[in-house]
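Field log, afternoon session.

UNIT: design team B
ACTIVITY: writing a sequence onto a fixed backbone
BACKBONE:
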């Protein structure tokens, strides 16, 4: 549309120009047609919005057809003298049609979004209704039936909210959604074991407290998801985000440095208040029992110095407002620099205090001695020993909660701040739940279900500790300027680490025109990643080496697709080339796994599998050569980008053929041997943060959907006593 409207009228129009205009018009009309078909299908499935959606779709289709008619100029020798109205005789017609098209397309998108929100709310309501039934259930048989239904509803909710999370543009909302979905994933298993324990021991108070805690936490998480989706707060409250020291210092420095441009844009009272708020927050460090004496002294000293530097700055600033001399402006510059330097030192000191405390605590608690002791003393029925270790766990909880609070101050980004708050909540809630589960086991030491229940809550604690190690690394990355390198999935090597020639290469960003040229290739790549994902989901054993390499390659290909859209973590062409190299290496590893797998298949099938493996090695080598080749200048760089994406597409096309072949051979092999491996247990199959190479844009905090589906399927095998 932009191309058509910006088309400059020239007296001489070549056949090539006329054909190009017609192609653009037809392309717009075809795209609108496809878009409207989807909109009409959505309208037919949602009667309450059918009329509005249908009207918007009709408007869009009409506008697309108008644009096609106005650009139907390739067959006309002299379009302006013909009775046929074209873009050349009616430029305003194209503008009107374009406006109508954009307006109607926006309407369709808004209506479709309303439908998605309604689907999520409806799904949440179903989950809540079934949860109420689960809370009131009194027989084990009835519980199994209702939990089966609940599991299916949670899987549906997981899919809907996962898609929504991927679509969110606001990183803060994305992090909140991820945190809520992580709670729901972990609580689903807790709800199962806590409810079973309560049914087995109906008169046990600690078992009831344990179960009630899980239900309450799940309801809060469900409510938060709806708040994020609908962008609302209960009772019209405004969300008050806690202010961290980092964000306070950043804002304060911006205001101070703004004095260089404008001496009158804020008052001295504003600056003083901002510093007071920052120094108030440093009391979280100085008042903490876990801050070292050395760190406490340094923070107090720097706080005092910051006040003095600000006093000096305000004095010079006030003088400069009255008399703007060269000497005063130089003094002001010195005062600004000294104030900012002092704030940087304060920032560095609180970062050091928080991260060193976190590192020490995580190292100290890595052996999980208290949890092990609770399990042993619980099975022994030793109530005194359980009481002793629950006190130790409470102390540990307080330490970890304090650690999360201090880390939040130095996290550096809003998403990481939210992750710290989520971690704090998890420790606050899970600690007492472990204690109630341990007390239940101590009261019923021979109960297998009480033992299993304690195991589940201990696992959640251990998992959160493991996540804290990853979070600490990310916080350090942000502080050291490696912002954006998310270790959860990132497969990019750091510049200079894996390739000696990287220093000589200058990263290049593509301009709009080049971005458009590779968009088509990127779209094909996106479709192929969807195909690969569909194939890997068919495998029962998600830990299979072939599946894991396939999933890793799909994730990397998806990040390359996002690059073609100007999105994702691959910001420059150099990032893309790094990713292509790692992608090719992963493909070579997959080929090795295929060679190993060929020893397990029938002799008749072996040659075909080995042939495909050799093809994969060949295309991966080609991609590696292309990615490593030097490219000087913008034109050569773009050609290299185009070649890398094209060859990645070729690898993914081959992968789409390989995966179904391997799946077929695996099934054939198992059928021939007359045995099938059992599906992995839920807890082992769960998708753990930081273990798989999944991109956050499409698989962020994926809720363990497959594992939940497996668990629901296996519900029939639950104890029926």
């Amino acid at each position: 549309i932009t191309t058509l409207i910006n088309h400059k009228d020239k007296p001489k129009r070549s056949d090539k120009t006329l054909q190009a205009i017609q192609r653009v018009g037809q392309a717009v009309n075809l795209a609108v047609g496809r878009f409207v078909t989807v909109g009409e299908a959505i309208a037919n499935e949602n009667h309450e919005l059918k009329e509005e959606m249908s009207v918007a779709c009709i408007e869009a289709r009409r506008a697309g057809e108008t644009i096609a008619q106005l650009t139907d100029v390739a067959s006309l020798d002299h379009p302006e003298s013909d009775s046929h109205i074209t873009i050349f005789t009616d430029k305003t017609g194209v503008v009107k049609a374009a406006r109508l098209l954009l307006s109607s397309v926006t309407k369709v998108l808004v209506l479709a979004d309303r439908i998605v929100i309604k689907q999520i709310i409806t799904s949440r309501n179903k989950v809540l209704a079934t949860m109420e039934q689960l809370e009131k259930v009194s027989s084990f048989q009835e519980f199994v039936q209702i939990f089966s239904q609940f599991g299916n509803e949670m899987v549906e909710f997981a899919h809907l909210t996962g898609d929504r999370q991927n679509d969110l543009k606001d990183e803060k909302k994305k992090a909140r959604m991820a945190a809520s979905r992580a709670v729901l994933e972990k609580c689903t298993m807790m709800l199962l074991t806590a409810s079973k324990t309560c049914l087995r021991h109906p008169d046990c108070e600690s078992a009831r407290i344990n179960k009630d805690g899980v239900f309450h936490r799940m309801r809060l998480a469900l409510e938060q998801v709806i708040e994020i989706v609908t962008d609302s707060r209960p009772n019209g409250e405004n969300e008050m985000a806690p202010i961290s020291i980092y964000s306070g210092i950043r804002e304060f420095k911006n205001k101070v440095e703004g004095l260089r441009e404008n001496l009158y844009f804020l008052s001295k009272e504003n600056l003083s208040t901002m510093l007071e708020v920052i120094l108030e927050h440093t009391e979280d460090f100085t008042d903490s029992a876990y801050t070292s004496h050395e760190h406490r002294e340094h923070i107090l000293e720097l706080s005092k110095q910051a006040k003095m530097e600000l006093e000096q700055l305000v004095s010079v600033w006030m003088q400069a407002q009255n008399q703007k001399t060269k000497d005063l402006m130089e003094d002001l510059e010195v005062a600004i620099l000294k104030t900012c330097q002092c704030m940087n030192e304060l920032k560095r000191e609180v970062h050091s205090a928080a991260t060193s405390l976190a590192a020490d605590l995580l190292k100290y608690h890595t052996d999980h001695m208290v949890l092990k002791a609770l399990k042993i003393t619980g099975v022994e029925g030793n109530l005194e020993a359980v009481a002793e270790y629950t006190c130790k766990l409470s102390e540990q909880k307080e330490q970890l909660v304090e650690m999360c609070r201090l880390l939040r101050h130095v996290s550096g980004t809003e998403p990481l701040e939210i992750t710290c708050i989520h971690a704090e909540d998890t420790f606050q809630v899970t600690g007492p739940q472990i204690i109630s589960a341990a007390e239940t086991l101590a009261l019923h030491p021979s109960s297998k279900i009480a033992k299993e229940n304690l195991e589940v809550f201990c696992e959640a604690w251990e998992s959160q500790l493991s996540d804290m190690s990853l979070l600490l690394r990310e916080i350090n990355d942000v502080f050291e300027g490696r912002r954006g390198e998310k270790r959860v999935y990132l497969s990019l090597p750091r510049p200079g680490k894996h390739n000696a020639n990287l220093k000589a290469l200058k990263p290049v960003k593509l301009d709009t025109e080049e971005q458009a040229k590779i968009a088509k290739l990127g779209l094909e790549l996106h479709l192929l990643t969807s195909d690969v994902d569909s194939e890997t989901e068919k495998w029962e054993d998600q830990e299979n080496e072939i599946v894991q390499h396939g999933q890793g390659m799909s994730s990397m290909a998806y990040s390359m697709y996002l690059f073609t859209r100007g999105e994702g973590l691959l910001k420059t062409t150099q990032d893309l080339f790094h990713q292509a190299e790692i992608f090719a290496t992963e493909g070579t590893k997959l080929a090795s796994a295929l060679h190993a797998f060929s020893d397990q298949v029938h002799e008749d099938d072996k040659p075909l599998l080995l042939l495909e493996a050799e093809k994969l090695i060949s295309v991966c080598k080609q991609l590696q050569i292309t990615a490593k080749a030097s490219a000087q200048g913008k034109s050569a760089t773009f050609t290299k980008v185009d070649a890398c994406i094209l060859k990645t597409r070729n690898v993914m096309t081959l992968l789409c053929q390989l995966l179904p072949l391997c799946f077929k051979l695996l099934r054939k092999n198992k059928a021939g041997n007359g045995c099938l491996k059992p599906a992995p247990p839920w807890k082992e199959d769960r998708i753990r943060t930081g273990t798989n190479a999944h991109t956050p844009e499409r698989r962020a905090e994926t809720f363990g959907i497959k594992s939940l589906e497996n668990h629901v399927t296996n519900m029939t095998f639950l104890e029926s006593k």
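LOG NOTE: The first helix runs from residue 2 to 5.
NEXT ACTIVITY: expression trials, pending approval
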